[in-house]
Every structure is written in C-alpha cells, then in structure tokens.
C-alpha cells in the first residue's frame, strides 16, 4: 500500500509533468472506483492542471479549481505514460486499468489496481475536504505543527496499542502498516505497547522516529520515476516484510504477528526485550 513517502513522491513527480497541461479527457473503466458524480468527471476536460499535492495518503490534482483526488488503497498504483494509446482502453489484465487521464500533449497516466479486493477510490470535487477521508485526517507528521508536545496530546489517555494508533488516519495522517513497523523499530518500542503508558521520554523518542523515518523515506524517493517507487520502498525497509531475516541493528531474527488481513514485523531484541509476541489476535506477550 502506498503510504506518505510514496504519495509525496508521486505528487512531486506529477508536479513536474502535468502542471501547466490541460486535461484532454478522462476514461473511467472501473465505475466502482469513481466515488462522486458532481462535478462529473467530464468537467475536467479542457481545464488546466495547476497543482499536485498530498493529504495524508490521498493524492490531489488541482485542475483549475476542480480537484481530482485519488486514494490508491492497498493495491492501486499510478503508471505514467509519455504517450497514451489512442485506441480505447480495455478493462482486465494482470493489473486492471481503472482510470486513464489524457493530457493535451499526448502524455498522461493510468490508475491500475491488482487483486480481487478493490479499494482504489477516485473523487472529483470542488474542495478536497469534500472527500470524507480527507476531511477527517489527523495532523500531518511532516508538518511543522506536528511536535513532540502535539504527539503527547494525541497519545494521552489512549488505551490503544501504539501500532494501531499510528495507523489510524484520523489520529496521524499518512502512516500505514509498513512505516508503522519501521517507526516502532527505530523507536525500539513494542507494537503492542499501550499509547497511554508512554512516558515523556517515550513520546520524544517516538516523535523523533516518526519524523526521521518518514523524511528519510521521502528523501530516498525524491526524483524517482513513478515506476521505481515501489522498489525503493521495499529496499529501504528494515523490518517490514522481512520475516526470518536478520535485524540490521542487532542481528536477531525478525518475527511476524499475523492477523486476518495483515501482518506486522518486529525485532524481539530491539523492541520487546527479547520476548516473542503472541502470533494471534489477543495481541499480548507470550508468558
């Protein structure tokens, strides 16, 4: 799933390529991906792209005041084309095409989504806050207002495991399953630690880990082509997706806890005092 660093990089990538160009037309192949009807997607035709930005994990193209807002979800992706095929696009294939944007110079991009569980969402709105997921976003962790004091306010009284809290977009915007694993590894903190139990020192450490981990990932992604961002994310991860491999910090074996539709990875030595976490939904340390 693309998270804050990848979406930030995609926004920068699009700023270089689409700002100043007019939208020739938009082809919608997966009607289920289009979540709005007013303004209609056809309203984008002939308008000029004036900006590309990000709200959490949402990508936002400003097209003369009408916003094309995209959430790539678990398996969606943006594929740039220097030359968009003139023949009509067809649905289906390994990475089914959901939407295609044609620009006035013949270039453009596709939105695709692999797998059977569809979550890709596209909105055409007059204000990004008309998108429910954008309107309810928590603070952006790369914003200057996201300080250690702000994080302390966020965790205060929360009887929630810190892993889940970091992934809650209404609490902190942009962090998903992968980078929450990375942040907690850097902070040397158990994913099952209860947020309300964090000391002031814990909060300061966690804040530094959040900002440093995300900024490092953004820096690594800067300037990359859209097709290279997934590979960069994977190679830059230290624990997420690396079950059974050696921890790059201490050499211990990275372990995993599996859930119904996701999994987390962590290092016992670095994060849980050497104790393995119970690999079941009860989410507590093995005795």
Automatic annotation (TrEMBL):
<keyword id="KW-0862">Zinc</keyword>
<dbReference type="InterPro" id="IPR000214">
    <property type="entry name" value="Znf_DNA_glyclase/AP_lyase"/>
</dbReference>
<keyword id="KW-0227">DNA damage</keyword>
<dbReference type="GO" id="GO:0006284">
    <property type="term" value="P:base-excision repair"/>
</dbReference>
<dbReference type="InterPro" id="IPR015886">
    <property type="entry name" value="H2TH_FPG"/>
</dbReference>
<dbReference type="Pfam" id="PF01149">
    <property type="entry name" value="Fapy_DNA_glyco"/>
</dbReference>
<dbReference type="GO" id="GO:0008270">
    <property type="term" value="F:zinc ion binding"/>
</dbReference>
<keyword id="KW-0479">Metal-binding</keyword>
<protein>
    <submittedName>
        <fullName>Fpg/Nei family DNA glycosylase</fullName>
    </submittedName>
</protein>
<feature type="domain" description="FPG-type">
    <location>
        <begin position="238"/>
        <end position="272"/>
    </location>
</feature>
<dbReference type="InterPro" id="IPR035937">
    <property type="entry name" value="FPG_N"/>
</dbReference>
<keyword id="KW-0863">Zinc-finger</keyword>
<dbReference type="InterPro" id="IPR010979">
    <property type="entry name" value="Ribosomal_uS13-like_H2TH"/>
</dbReference>
<dbReference type="GO" id="GO:0034039">
    <property type="term" value="F:8-oxo-7,8-dihydroguanine DNA N-glycosylase activity"/>
</dbReference>
<feature type="domain" description="Formamidopyrimidine-DNA glycosylase catalytic">
    <location>
        <begin position="2"/>
        <end position="93"/>
    </location>
</feature>
<dbReference type="InterPro" id="IPR010663">
    <property type="entry name" value="Znf_FPG/IleRS"/>
</dbReference>
<keyword id="KW-0238">DNA-binding</keyword>
<keyword id="KW-0326">Glycosidase</keyword>
<keyword id="KW-0511">Multifunctional enzyme</keyword>
<keyword id="KW-0378">Hydrolase</keyword>
<keyword id="KW-0234">DNA repair</keyword>
<dbReference type="Pfam" id="PF06831">
    <property type="entry name" value="H2TH"/>
</dbReference>
<dbReference type="InterPro" id="IPR012319">
    <property type="entry name" value="FPG_cat"/>
</dbReference>
<dbReference type="Pfam" id="PF06827">
    <property type="entry name" value="zf-FPG_IleRS"/>
</dbReference>
<comment type="similarity">
    <text>Belongs to the FPG family.</text>
</comment>
<dbReference type="GO" id="GO:0016829">
    <property type="term" value="F:lyase activity"/>
</dbReference>
<dbReference type="GO" id="GO:0003906">
    <property type="term" value="F:DNA-(apurinic or apyrimidinic site) endonuclease activity"/>
</dbReference>
<dbReference type="GO" id="GO:0003684">
    <property type="term" value="F:damaged DNA binding"/>
</dbReference>
<keyword id="KW-0456">Lyase</keyword>
